[in-house]
Amino acid sequence: MIQWSDQEEGYCEGIFKSAFFRDDEGSDELSVSAQRPELSECAEKCVAAFNSLTEAQITAICEEIIKSAEENGDEEFELPELENALDILQYCWFTGIYVNMLSTEDPVAFVAEGEGDWGSVIGFAVQNNEVVYVGTEYMDCMRAE
């Protein structure tokens, strides 16, 4: 699933095809990063979980992104009327995911990162197949070694 580009001590990165979310150019290729190459199996699990988010989970993520855009947007951006929550994805994009696991025994956990036309970053955290956070402080969900 992942095409690895860097696998060095202390860092590894690759790309994968996203089943739903897109980048700022509309591409389905997003990045995946892990703290070390030994977590490549964890990265595969995270990508599979990311691509298996349910419609209900994606809708809930989008609803929270809308709230964040309204609260954190700059004065120049006015969020237009949206027909449904998924329409927010016309105004934001994702760049990749970070593995938030320290070993293969950990429950699957990752953080997704993106940005919105309203001028701030946006992300969400998933742990054990549950969306646990959506907003601008998503990196606070990352576990440290």
What would you note in describing this structure?
- With 145 residues, this protein is an alpha+beta fold.
- It contains two helices and seven strands.
- The protein has a seven-stranded mixed beta sheet, with helices on one face.
- The longest helix is centred in the middle third of the chain and has 18 residues.
- The chain is elongated.
- It starts with a strand and ends in a 10-residue tail after the last strand.
**Main beta-sheet annotation:** 7 strands, mixed
Percentage of residues in helical conformation: 10-25%
Look at the helices and sheets and give the structural class: alpha+beta
Give start-end ranges of low-pLDDT stretches: none
Separation of termini?
26 Å
Main sheet strand line-up: 1-2-3-4-5-6-7
Overall pLDDT level: 93
> How big a fraction of the residues is strand?
25-35%
Instruction: Count helical runs.
Output: 2
Question: Can you write the helix and strand succession as a string?
Answer: EEEHHEEEE
Indicate the overall shape: elongated
The value of Rg in angstroms is 15 Å
Strand segment tally: 7
Q: TL;DR?
A:
This protein is α+β, with helices and mostly antiparallel strands. It is 21% helix and 33% strand.
Topology:
Elements: E1 3-8, E2 11-17, E3 29-34, H1 40-51, H2 55-72, E4 92-99, E5 109-116, E6 121-127, E7 130-135
Parallel strand pairs: 3-4
Antiparallel strand pairs: 1-2, 2-3, 4-5, 5-6, 6-7
Structural descriptors:
single chain, 145 residues, alpha+beta, seven-stranded mixed β-sheet, 21% helix
